[in-house]
Amino acid sequence: MKRIFMLSLVLVLSTACRAGEHPGAEEFAAKAALELQLDQEEVALLLQDARFKQSIVDAMSRPAEGKPWHEYRPIFITDKRIRKGVKFWRENEALINQAAEKYGVDQQIIVAIIGVETYYGGNTGSYRVLDALATLSFYYPDTGNDRSDFFSRELMQFIMLGEEEGLPLRDVTGSYAGAMGLGQFMPSSYREYAVDLDGDGRRDLWSSMDDVIGSVANYLHRHGWAYGEPVTYRATVAAGADMGLVSRRDFKVKKTVDELAAGGFESTQAVNGDTLAAVARLEEGEDDSYWLAFRNFYVITRYNRSPLYAMAVFDLSEAIRKGFEE
Ligand SMILES: [Ca+2]
């Protein structure tokens, strides 16, 4: 008993010295061992190889989602991205149909998500995920919204993926936030929602188009996507409309279309009065535009919380669908 104690004490001390390079790395390794039964020494050694990246801190300090809509939209809705989306759909049509049917998710939305996230695989990110997650765990920038705990949990999930999926943790690359593959899955989403659609026993979000498309569809399905249902309709605003009905960050649908109309936000397209919706506002430059955001809109915000993101995915999906049907 005493001997075991001494051994673990030696292990803890040596771990402490090695992981001490990043502030909090030591505690992280101990926590990973305690909560996930990971090898503390191995975790400490891995963290020693993680590099702090100022460029990651800088990117986190100025996200695209901080822009107004009229500056955000042109980043994602371009002729080229629409054309490439139509091409991607045609090239993967059978797979996309298979995933759409299996998971009940509209084809054009699957295509648009992959288009917004990585330009259909053209840009899956060049940061080492290990560096991204360690930097944001141990050196989160002072933005007034400390998300280091979130990234610390994602770093742990990432290490689990090394065990479960055989990911080479020191080599895997992704976004500055640590999102991976064509659909940019964070480690916790990878573990929870990625699927092995081609059935080879691995969930490969980089080079198996089956797994990529299946995983994006499954993610939306698990968050409640309803096939063929609307995403958002533009609303007219009555004078004296109740601006308290406009959602800023949380687009959970809580009011019926009828209730929102009574509050001054009326749909410009036909929709059942008992359909649930939230109201989104976009900065168009001079004026704002208002939108009834239905449940499917909320589901897209599960991919990225910003209503700008959800609207960009929706706009791109519609443009791609038109191109595809031509
Ligand atoms: Ca697979």
Description:
This protein has 326 residues and is an alpha+beta fold. The protein has a domain at 8-48. 53% of the residues lie in helices and 9% in strands. It has helices at residues 2-19, 25-36, 40-48, 54-61, 69-76, 79-91, 93-103, 107-118, 129-138, 148-165, 187-193, 209-222, 257-262, 295-301, 307-325, and strands at 127-128, 173-174, 232-237, 255-256, 265-267, 276-283, 288-294. A five-stranded antiparallel sheet has the order 4-6-7-3-5. It has a two-stranded antiparallel ribbon with strand order 1-2. A hairpin with a 4-residue loop joins strand 6 and strand 7. It is globular. The relative contact order is 0.13. The model is unreliable at 10-19 (pLDDT under 50). The structure holds calcium ion. Calcium ion is lined by residues 196, 198, 200, 202-204, 208, 211.
Labels describing this entry:
9% strand, binds calcium ion, 326 residues, 53% helix, two-stranded antiparallel ribbon, alpha+beta
Uncertain spans, ≥5 residues at pLDDT below 50? 10-19
Cα radius of gyration in angstroms: 22 Å
Largest sheet strand order:
4-6-7-3-5
What is the strand content?
A: 5-15%
Tell me the overall shape. globular
Task: Measure the end-to-end span.
Answer: 75 Å
The distinct ligands, each listed once, are: calcium ion
Helix percent band = 40-55%
Largest sheet: 5 strands, antiparallel
Query: What sequence of helices (H) and strands (E) makes up the elements?
Result: HHHHHHHHEHHEHHEEHEEEHH
Class computed from helices, strands and strand pairing? alpha+beta
The number of helices is: 15
* Number of E-type strands: 7
What's the overall average pLDDT, rounded?
A: 93
